[in-house]
Amino acid sequence: MENRSVFIISDGTGITAGALGKLLEHFPSTTFRQIRLPFVDDMEKVLSAKASIQMASSRNGGRPIVIMSIGDISRRNKLKEANAYYIDLFETFIDPLGVELNQSPLTGAGIAHSAMGSKYDVRMDAVNFTLNHDDGMTNSGLEEAEVILVGVSRCGKTPTSVYLAMQFGVKAANYPLIPEDFERGSLPEVLLKHTDKIFGLTINPERLHAVRNERRAGSFYASLENCKKEIATAENLMRNAGISWTDSTSRSVEELSAIILQKIRKEEPVKKSA
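The structure assignment produced for this chain is given below.
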């Protein structure tokens, strides 16, 4: 198996350049060693990053891969003097888009934050809402929720809710389905007036057993028999309530979020920044 160093270099946080790192998942026969270098925003830092790339090249044999998001063209060009394969966000995507739009793109750290400031505020508001409405923590303000995730304990409700809030500004609450709900045969009463917002998650019993066993090994809560019973009862409850649901067993939070967004939101137009 081939080994390659991957440098993710940005004059900001590196989140955007890091997202391009997902491209590496298409090449499982190579082992990638990632080195993140955020805030490379002056020539001294560029020269230091360049030296690190050159060192990796001489050490590993194969050329390092550099995924970069640096707005200043002189710094970009200086960095590219090192022997590496470059995936340049500006050169590949932003500059050609500027040509198409007949506009000069904004450059520099923090552009995404400043240009999308209002959306950033929406996301942070959603994160606060979601954290305050995690695991049925409170019933107050549920009318503000865009989606309320339900399912048995440890099926992935919390990470999916937080991802929806952080990435898409979705106010997502989540409620665990518990033995009292199963005995009653219906959703918690507080949720009955919000059924149009509810989306369910289910999970493979064996997977749930493994996850719960990490938390409470050997307990009835974690037993495979109880997991099977809870899942079957929860699915029947959701079916009777007319709730859509999906299986979280082999899906990432990104996949789950895409499914949920397709259900609760229509595509929104891109708005011009002020």
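Interim note for the steering committee: The first helix runs from residue 15 to 20. The first strand starts at residue 2 and ends at 10.
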